[in-house]
Amino acid sequence: MDAGRRCLSLAKGRERYVFWYSPGQESSLLASLVEYAEQPDVNFDFFDAAVLSYQMGKWIGNTADSRVAVSP
After folding, report:
1. Which pLDDT band, with edges at 50, 70 and 90, does 67 fall under?
2. Are 43 and 26 in contact (CB under 8 A)?
3. How much is the pTM?
């Protein structure tokens, strides 16, 4: 597995949703989450997509903060 890959996951009842993506693919992943939420036969809705996008944004924010903290 590529060390640069990132993972978003969501546990919903007995179901587990796991999305892998590489840095720079965040907008594509967000589009995929929306497409997934639009599928009526999947137990994944827009709230779930929002939770995962929040997780991604939080991770990006933490990464940016750590880069600023170590920069001279």
Report:
1. low
2. no
3. 0.75
